[in-house]
C-alpha cells in the first residue's frame, strides 16, 4: 500500500477538493506510474454529477493519464522503470470472455473495471482515477507512450483519442471517402485529425460557424454549418461515414439525411436519450445505420498511440494548475475550452 | 385509355366506396393485368388516414397485386397474355441513378413512383392501386408468378413478403444464426417463414403469449414474450439479427439489449418516431446497429417470388368480398387478422 494524493468530489453537488487515499502495492503483473498529466474529460463531470447513475463517493476522476513508470512487478515484460506510460478508461476486465479474447476489453461480457467510479475485481475496493499523483495498474491495461510525443498533449489520447480512432478504424475510413465529424470539442477535434490522417476527405459539421476557421486549421477540408438548411441540403446523401461526437441529447434525424445509402452514423458522445426521437423513416429510406462505439480495446489503444507518434498527432490542450480544476470544469460545461484541459500534476501540493 | 372500376377513399375520414376511373392505354413497354387478388396492407390504412402526410384523394389503395396478363406492348419480352403476374409497391423509378443501376429502385435517388398515392412520371396523373379490376404497369415493375403458388395467398408477397425477405437476405441470415422476428402480423409471419426457410434458428418475439402456438406453427423454433423480464434477460446478448416489424412507435431499447455485440436490428414497420427515444448507450455498449429497410428492388422481388415457389411459401390469408373491405380495415386496425386480408376481385360489381 502507498499513500496517494489527489482531488476528489465527495457528493454530486460538491467541488473537487484535496484528498488522500491508499493505492494497492504493485503485484507481480502491475506497473506503478507517477502521473505527470491528467486530461479532463467531459465524462468526469457527468460522473461526478451522477448524470448516468451509480456514482460512488468519494470519487477521484481522471482517465486520460500520462506518467512515468516508477516500479514494475516481476512478471511485467513491456515496461521498465523510467518509461513513459499511459492509462485510459479501463484498468481491468474479466480477460476470459469472447470480447476479451478478441482484444475488445471495453465490451467485456462481465463488464470492464473502469479507472475510477468502479470496483477492483479482486479486492472489491473502489478505483480512483488520474487526478492524483500515482496509480498502480495491471500491465495489460497500460500503454507505451513514445518519447517523441508532447506528453501533456498526449494525455487526452487515452480517452478522446481512442474513442474517435476506434470507430474510424472499425468502419474502415480512408482515402476516397467523405467523412463528417459532428461537433467540435474534445472528441471532435481528434476525430478531424484522425480522419484526415487516415486519408479521408473531412467535413466538420458544427452548429457554430465561428468554429469553421479552427476546424480547417485542425485538418478539415470543409465546414458544414448544420443550422443552415441550404448547406444541409447541398450535402444531403453525400457522406460515407459520420462520427457524431455530440455529448448531449439531440435530434439525429437531420444528420441521417446527410448519409449515402447503406452508410453509417456512429455515436461516441451521447449515452442518454436521442430526443427528439429518431424516425424510422430516417434509417429505412436508404437502409442507413445508426450505431455507437465505446473507447477501444487495449491493443487498439496501443495501435492508436503508435499511429499518433508516427503521424505526430496530439490533442490541442490548455494546461492548468490543479488548484484551478473547479474553474476548468465550469468552463468545460460551457464548452469554453479548445479543446481539452490537462492538469499538470506537478502543481499538486502533497499533504504531509 | 380504359375504364377501370374499384374502391377509393375520397378524404382521410371517409370509408372506401365504389369508384371508376381511367387507366392509361398500354404503351410498348407496358403490361396490362386483370387483377385477381389484392392484399390489404397496414400502410393502406396509414395512407388513407394521411398518417404520413401527402395523401392525394381520391385514393385507390392496394399494392399487393396478383393478376393475369391480358395485353402486352410491342417491346415486352418477359410476359405473354395469360401469364400470372404480380405488382408491388412501385410502378416506376428514374431508372438512371446509382440506386436504379444497382436494381435498388426502392431507393431511387429521384424517388420511386408508388403504385398508388403517387404521380406518374410521364403524364403527371395520379397512380391508382390494386383495389380495382385492372392495372397497366411498365414491364420492369411486374414480376412473374409461378402457377404452383396459391394465387390468393401469394398477393401479400408483393409487399409483406419482399419487405421481410430483402433485409434477411441483405444481412445474410442463414444457418447457425439466431434470428428474432419482432411482432407477429402481416410482416412478422412472413419474416418467420423466410428466416426459417433460410436456415436460421428463429425466435418469435411478441408481447402476446397467446400468439406463441401460432408462431411455432409458422416455423418459429422458440417464442420470447417481450413483456416478461425473466425471458428477456435469458435471451440478452444472444441474437445475430433482429427483424423488427412493429408498425407503430415503440421503445426499441429493450430489443437492442437482445443483440450480440456488432449485431443489427432492422426496422421494417415503423416510419415515425421511436418513442420512448433510443438511448445512445443502447448502441454504444456493444457497437450495435439500428437500421431499416424499405421493400426491395424489382430483381430481388422476382428472386423472392421464385424462392417462394421453390420453398412453397405463401402468406396466411383471409379472403374477403370487396363489399366488406371497410370492416376488414377496422379489424386490421385492431390486429384482428391472421395474418393478411386479401380481396377477391371477382366480388367487385362493375358499374355500368
Automatic annotation (TrEMBL), chains A, B:
Family matches, as SUPFAM superfamilies: GroES-like, NAD(P)-binding Rossmann-fold domains
Keywords: Metal-binding, Oxidoreductase, Zinc
GO MF, one annotated term: zinc ion binding
Protein species of origin: Stenotrophomonas rhizophila
Cofactor: Zn(2+)
Protein name listed in UniProt: Zinc-type alcohol dehydrogenase-like protein
Enoyl reductase (ER) domain sequence ranges: 8-343
UniProt KW Zinc keyword: yes
Oxidoreductase recorded as keyword: yes
Family recorded in the similarity comment: Belongs to the zinc-containing alcohol dehydrogenase family.
EC number: 1.-.-.-
Amino acid at each position: 500500500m502507498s499513500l496517494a494524493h489527489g482531488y476528489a468530489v465527495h457528493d454530486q453537488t460538491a467541488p473537487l477538493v484535496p484528498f488522500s487515499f491508499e493505492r494497492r502495492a504493485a503485484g507481480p503483473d502491475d506497473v506503478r506510474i507517477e502521473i505527470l498529466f491528467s486530461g479532463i474529460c467531459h465524462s468526469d463531470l457527468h460522473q461526478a454529477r451522477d448524470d448516468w447513475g451509480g456514482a460512488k463517493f468519494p470519487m477521484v476522476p481522471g482517465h486520460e493519464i500520462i506518467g512515468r513508470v516508477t516500479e514494475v512487478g516481476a512478471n511485467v515484460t513491456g515496461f521498465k522503470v523510467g518509461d513513459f506510460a499511459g492509462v485510459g478508461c479501463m484498468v481491468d476486465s474479466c480477460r476470459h470472455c469472447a470480447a476479451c479474447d478478441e482484444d475488445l476489453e471495453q465490451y467485456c461480457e462481465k463488464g470492464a473495471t473502469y479507472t475510477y467510479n468502479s470496483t477492483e475485481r479482486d479486492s472489491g475496493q473502489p478505483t480512483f482515477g488520474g487526478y492524483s499523483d500515482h496509480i498502480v495498474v495491471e500491465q495489460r491495461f497500460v500503454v507505451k507512450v513514445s518519447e517523441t510525443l508532447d506528453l501533456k498533449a498526449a494525455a487526452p489520447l487515452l480517452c478522446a483519442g481512442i474513442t474517435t480512432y476506434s470507430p474510424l478504424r472499425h468502419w474502415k475510413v480512408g482515402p476516397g471517402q467523405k467523412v463528417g465529424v459532428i461537433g467540435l470539442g474534445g472528441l471532435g477535434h481528434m476525430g478531424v485529425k484522425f480522419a484526415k490522417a487516415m486519408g479521408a476527405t473531412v467535413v466538420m459539421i458544427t452548429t457554430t460557424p465561428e468554429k469553421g476557421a479552427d476546424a480547417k486549421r485542425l485538418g478539415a477540408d470543409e465546414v458544414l454549418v448544420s443550422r443552415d438548411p441550404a448547406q444541409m441540403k447541398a450535402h444531403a446523401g453525400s457522406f460515407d461515414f459520420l462520427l457524431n461526437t455530440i455529448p448531449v441529447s439531440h435530434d439525429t434525424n437531420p444528420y441521417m439525411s446527410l448519409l449515402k445509402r447503406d452508410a453509417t452514423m456512429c455515436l461516441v458522445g451521447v449515452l442518454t436519450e436521442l430526443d427528439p426521437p429518431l424516425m424510422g423513416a430516417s434509417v429505412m429510406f436508404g437502409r442507413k445505420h445508426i450505431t455507437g462505439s465505446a473507447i477501444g480495446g487495449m491493443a487498439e489503444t496501443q495501435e492508436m498511440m503508435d499511429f499518433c507518434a508516427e503521424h505526430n498527432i496530439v490533442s490541442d490542450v490548455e494546461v492548468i494548475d490543479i488548484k484551478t480544476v473547479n474553474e476548468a470544469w465550469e468552463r468545460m460545461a460551457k464548452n469554453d475550452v479548445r479543446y481539452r484541459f490537462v492538469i499538470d500534476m506537478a502543481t499538486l501540493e502533497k499533504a504531509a
